[in-house]
Structures are given as C-alpha cells and as structure tokens.
Design goal:
cell outer membrane; 459 residues; SusD_RagB_dom; two-stranded antiparallel ribbon; TPR-like_helical_dom_sf; mainly alpha; 44% helix; signal; 16 helices; single chain; Serine Threonine Protein Phosphatase 5, Tetratricopeptide repeat
Amino acid sequence: MKRNLIIALVLVTTVLSACKKYLDIKPYGKTIPKTAEEFVALLHSMLNNIDYGGDNLILGSANSLLNLECYADNLDASITNYPAGNSLPIYVGANINNKQKDYEDLYQRIRDCNIVINNLKTDNTELDKNVLGTAYAIRAVCYFQLMRQFCEPYNAQKGEQLGLPIVTDFDMEARPLRSTLKQTMNFIERDFKKAVDFKVKEEVYRFTEDVTQAHLARFYFWAKEWDKATPIAEALLGKYPMQEGTAYTEMLQARNAKKGNVLMRSFLFSGTTDISYNSAMSIIKARPVSKGFIDLFVEKERDVRFNLMMDKKRQHTKNLMANIRTDEMCLMLAESYAHQGNSGKALDYLNLLRAKRITGYTPLTATTLPAVDNSALVQEDAMGKPLTPLMQAILNERRKEFYGEGDRWFELKRNGSPTFWVAKDGLKYITEPYLYTFPIPRTDVELIDGLVQNPGYTF
C-alpha cells in the first residue's frame, strides 16, 4: 500500500551560503516543526524516493547500480558496443567529479535527520518512536555510505585514518573538520544502536528494527568487527530463510514487489522513475558480461543464477534492484567465521548458500576447495592477507550472488583495492587504488582551513 504522506504544517526554510550548503541550516522567518506529525514529511520524502526508485544514495537506484557495475570488473568495458554504450562510464574516473555532488546530497539528508532528532519533543508515543527510530537509522546509513565512498577501508595497522566531518545539529557558523575514521565508525555504531532501541515495527517506515539490524550487520562487516556481525546475521538468517529455485528467481526478478527474504528494496512502486529504470536495463546490455565472471560458474546450467543474470549473448538480464536480503547475511557469516579462524562454520554457511543455488549440489570440503586462482584480480582478503582457497571461494560466491546489485565495486575496495585497466580507442583507463576513495568536494577543501583532501587528488 502506498505511503500516505503527512504534509508538514510548518516548513523549514534554509539560508544557504556559498559553501557547505548541506550543513548550513537555520530557520529563517519560520518556526521549526515540533510534533511528530509535523516531522513525518521530512522522512517520508526520503522514504518515498526509495520506494519509487529515485534514491541514488541511501539504498540505491537502477542508475546508481548501473554505474557501480561499470566501475568494477563484472562487465567488460573494453568490448562495449557503441554508440549504444556511449552513456556508460568507461571506468570510475569518468564519474569522479559527480561523487562530490553525492557527498553534498548525503549531508543534506543528514541535515533533515538532524532537524528531527534535535527538535522532536517526544512524549514517548509509538509515533514518536517510529519517527525518531527512522531518523537515526537514515542518518546512520547516510554516514555509512559516506564512509564507504569517501574514506579508506578501516585498517587498525595504519594508525589514525581520515574519517568524516560529524554533523549532529545545524549551525551556520560551524565548519567541522574530519574526524578520525575510528571516531566516525563509533558515531555510526551509536546511531544504529539508537535506531534499533526504538524498535520500529511499522513497515511504512521501511527502516524497521530488522532492517536496521541488517544495516548494522553490514556496518560491522565493513568495519571488520566480525564477532559483532555474526550474531546479528545469524538471527536474521534464522528469521528470514533463504529462497531457492523458482521462488528465488521470482524474488529477484519482481519489478515492483518485496518477496521472499528481501528485507528492504528500492522501486516498490511504479511512477516517473520507470523511464530511468527501463533506460538502465536497456543501456547495460551494451556492455557484455566479462569472461572472467562467466568462468566462475563452474556448474553452468545447474546454477540457477547463470541464466538469471545473462543471456547467451553475454547481455545482462538480472533486475537492477537495490536491496538488502538475508543471502548477504549468509555470506557475511561465512567470511566472518573464516576471518575468526573457524573454517568449519565458514564452510557450513558457504555450502548452505550454494545448496540453495545449485541443483544436485555436493558440499565442498577443506580438501575439495578449488586452488587459489593466481590470475584473479583480487589476491588479498580484507585483512591484507593472501587469499586461501576457502576465502577465495567465499568471495567468488559473493561476486556471483550479488552481481548487478552494486556490490562488486565495494568488494574490490574492501579486498585490497587492486589496480586494473580497460581500453577504448587505443587508450588505457587505469583504476588506481586511490580512485576507490572518492574526493571531498573541492570547494570545501579550498574554503575550510584545515580540511584534508583524500590522497591522490590535487584539487
């Protein structure tokens, strides 16, 4: 059922300066909303954008997933079909300036959440809890997305790493510098925990308690806190078992429905974004699936994903749907246990997922795991260690499972940020390690004394 928007009785008018407009929030000639009913519209505007597939930042849209796939190596950019593929980025560097706009837009969403969190005078009603729980969850996800894109992966061996400017209220005079990455991570964790504590149950708010727990598990996984990710992932996987066969295919190919063990998804409703969705599904066919990706499907036709994801011409066929589902929890568990030295449990979860995808599946054992492919792009794990047969099998399974869902780009970043290149018109376009971490907006670096740009960028 479509969300019925509650129109705010009082709107917030903002005064924007030349720089940092996404942080500059001060009511001007208007009164800030005070009741939950008045704050709902700020949140529902963002949630509606997710529901109609227009959100590129919080969960993702067909267009944002298309771009992420183009940055990575699941598609073969060197044999793109032109002119059909002219609008596809040849590599991440082609879109790097656009990422500065994403940075600003994510902070604008954080701004709206801050307005709710700082100004809602709660009476501890269910509506108050739903509104605050949703605001904390969205703010945490926005900071998580900023961290994944604009900070290096956390590495305790590096000492202090650059984090994000942490903004928790609105102040036109404030120009916060970057916190450390550890401070950023601590802030995101606190926000997620606060959101979970509100125990949002109503589906209309999308970030229910279970959905927020799933995002928290994602955060812990990215932060390499394997022991914190595992209990959450196990609880969710137990509550929402994985689908298989026809039910799995129907779940992923549903155009406007949340099915199976999908906890949250984009594009629930048709609307004006149908055009952009159809365009993305058409344009992606101009870039064939890479041979390296196809070769991962050793079982070929026995693997339900093989024909789901591509046709015989190597053209993409899988639905471009941003989502969070418990299949991810299963593979997070496999990898987390592997990092903790529990190869038995890691194999159990790896086999659990493969059994749901491959007809006549025979479980892998420590002695039957394929040898490490030394020609593969990824050669080290998230901890910087050389891949073992078990870890490579887990990473390969994740690559197959989440193809077309924008996952591979972040997997490359998380596992060594390897250098690779593609060719066009006799030129090489090289994805260097620094390009996995996007630049802070140039105007901020120039105008805010002491704000440090990410390594590799001279502007």
